[in-house]
Design a protein that fits this description.
Length: about 260
């Protein structure tokens, strides 16, 4: 176990993004379920919201967990067109939600403040946030990666109950330049940022820093997963493209075990 810490049991999460049809989703989930024997990692799938009920029903009795791709900052019902509350997600067996994905930040303009509110609402509603952070290519190139990561983390860390919230959170480091580009961070580049994240958190709370699960995301596939997951501060992955193909996703899960 990484860091001798049971909380850091490897997790492989598939972010299906805006992909799939009813038929395709059933094929994918059935394939994943039937191929997981002997693979000893936590596995999570995050389908498009419209398929959550379908996938949840199909997952009954399986160890595969179900997550959403976002969550509203308001935990109960209300006038929030287009959003889903923690209460709605948990009613359908969804215990995780991706929050602050780079596509939400950069295509839909979600701010650090809104993302922090979403993390807080998820935890309040018994949904584990998969809180995503990561730098743009230009930020890496101008040497501000650590500054950007620290600022994104601080949006939650500096809330009154920030440490408590992060103790219920999974982090995902996804360098934006590596998402969907086929360009992966090298294991050493990813490890360096994961170690930085822990050192930044450790300034506030050492137990939090040692125990928090940090996933890597960005063009993870069957060929590069094992080296990435072998790094000491990487506890699994958040997988986009490769999570849409049964064999590729299973190979990535196997690499995490
Ligand atoms: P890809 O694996 O397709 O690069 O996507 C990564 C991602 O954004 C997962 O959330």
């Amino acid at each position: 176990m990484k860091g001798n810490n049971d909380m850091r049991r490897p997790l492989v999460a598939g972010n299906w993004k805006m992909n799939g049809t009813q038929e395709g989703v059933i094929e994918l989930i059935d394939g994943i379920k039937s191929g997981l024997d002997g693979i000893n990692v936590e596995v999570l799938v995050c389908p498009p919201a419209i398929f959550i009920g379908l996938v949840g029903a199909r997952l009954e009795g399986s160890k595969v967990k179900l997550g959403a791709q976002n969550i509203c900052q308001q935990p109960e019902s209300g006038a929030f067109t287009g959003e889903l509350s923690a209460a709605m997600l948990t009613e359908f067996g969804c215990r995780y939600a991706i929050i602050g994905h780079s596509e939400r930040r950069h295509v839909y303009g979600e701010s650090d403040k809104l993302i922090a509110e979403r993390v807080a609402a998820a935890v309040a509603g018994n949904v584990t946030p998969i809180f995503c952070i990561g730098e743009l290519l230009e930020e890496r190139e101008n040497g501000t990666t650590e500054q950007v990561i620290a600022q994104q983390l601080d949006a939650v860390l500096n809330l009154d109950n920030g440490i408590v919230l992060l103790k219920e959170t999974v982090l995902a480091y996804e360098p934006v330049w590596a998402i969907g580009t086929g360009k992966t961070a090298s294991p050493e580049q990813a490890q360096a940022v994961h170690a930085f994240i822990r050192s930044h958190l450790a300034k506030q709370d050492e137990a939090l820093a040692a125990g928090i699960k940090i996933l890597y995301g960005g063009s993870v596939n069957a060929a590069n997963a094992e080296k990435l997951f072998g790094m000491p501060d990487i506890d699994g992955g958040l997988i986009g493209g490769a999570s849409l193909k049964v064999n590729d996703f299973l190979a990535v899960c196997k690499a995490a075990g």
